[in-house]
Write a structure and sequence with these properties.
The protein is an alpha/beta fold. 24% of the residues lie in helices and 29% in strands. The protein is built from 7 helices and 19 strands. It has helices at residues 11-22, 57-70, 118-122, 132-135, 151-160, 180-187, 285-304; strands at 2-7, 28-30, 44-45, 55-56, 74-76, 80-84, 90-94, 97-106, 110-112, 128-129, 143-147, 166-170, 192-195, 198-206, 210-218, 224-227, 231-234, 238-240, 271-273. Strands 1, 2, 5, 6, 7, 8 and 19 form a 7-stranded mixed β-sheet that branches. Strands 10-17-11-12-13 form a 5-stranded parallel β-sheet, with helices on one face. Helix 1 (11-22) packs parallel to helix 2 (57-70) and helix 5 (151-160) packs parallel to helix 6 (180-187). The longest helix has 20 residues, at 285-304. It is elongated.
Amino acid sequence: MRNMVIIGSGPAGLTAAVYAARANLQPLLIEGKEPGGQLTLTTLVENYPGFGEGIMGPQLMEEMRKQALRFGTEIVTSYVYAVKLKEYPFRVYFADQEVTTKTVVISTGSSAKLIGIESELQLMGHGVSTCATCDGFFYRGREIAVVGGGDSAMEEATFLTKFATTVFVIHRRDVLRASKIMQDRAFSNPKIQFIWDTVVDHVVGTKETGVTGLKLKKVKTLEASDLKVDGLFVAIGHNPNTDIFKGQIDLDSHGYIKTQPDSTRTNIPGVFACGDVQDPVFRQAVTAAGTGCMAAIEAERWLEH
């Protein structure tokens, strides 16, 4: 019987582990399919407090992992494929193991939605990115493209104009879904050009050269064209990693775990959620770490009572 099982090993899960281990709860943390979470896919992280010169994403996660281990967290390199949260104690399943636990902290994060073409996956991290704040600085003085039409796409495109000479926004429709204020900001930016009714058919380039261009297709006429760019940012939203919790825990219409106001408590007493899996708004490492701290403290208090 465990006091706490933490599912996921991004900033939220590892911060929860640090706090829980320091409270002598001897937590078990199961890393998941992406140990370290989305930060391990990034390079330089400059907006995490405490690192004046910035720190590489994988290095930051390795430091957090060491800290969790130092205080007595047990970390397992595996992923959870099923849980039973409707009966107590809770049951968590990974590899060929079944673990019973008094509390569960869910920190499974979210994954960026992708266009769904093979060349996009092949060049991910080599000119294709899902995070402008992570990778924008690589494109100083370059021409780049953003795919999407919502608030996040407009936000990314506007942010990228700090670095790029031109940002092409490619959208499959002829109107944006983004809020009026975000649209106005993008339309009034001289560096942003819109390509309407168009999808990306193929990303041109190699891992050695990076992205060199895009093959585009008009949605209505199927007319093909080429666009020369040095990078592609995909900004069509995120999917929270909540499939194994469906039908057991309250989710919102987009699949994010619902937590109580000013809390990480879910609708199941003893189950807590932190990080991007319950935060569709900020999705930052520092906010995820903050909610990981909250989850561990709330779980500790719940166990005491």
